[in-house]
Predict the 3D structure of the following.
Amino acid sequence: MPLPTIHQIVFVIAPLDRPLAARLTTPPPVFVPSISTVPLQYRITAPSLPSFARRDPVDLLAIISSKVNAVIKRLQAIFDRKDQLLDTPHDHRLALQRIGDRLEWILDNITENGTSWTRSQQQNIDWFCKEFGKVRFSGLGQNFERVVKALVELEHFGYLDWIVV
């Protein structure tokens, strides 16, 4: 006797010529329409508004850490242009180095000491990163002096002066 094919086996296991209720092993539950006395719009309450006043400190530090990483990545583009960097004034190079050192210090200390930083210190880091993000790095080769000048001015605002390296 020849072996049945796959299609024959499937058809034998689940013949589709019977109605769905006859093919189910357990009958479906009986549908009972509910008649509500109160309209749906009065039964559903609005969700509570989220409170943005207090966030988890660990989440805040993770956000700050990612912002600082992005700033360091952009700052590295300045340091990678050594030939143009050597043509900038010495005090500008020192200001850029201070920015880099302070950002590295933040990354090194954020996991251990980040929760002990005050809210204003965290805001200063955040503001620095936002202001740094406003500096346009497009066409860095042609606009190198303008970008360096903007970063030096940003360093003079003193957002990160509370960090002593």
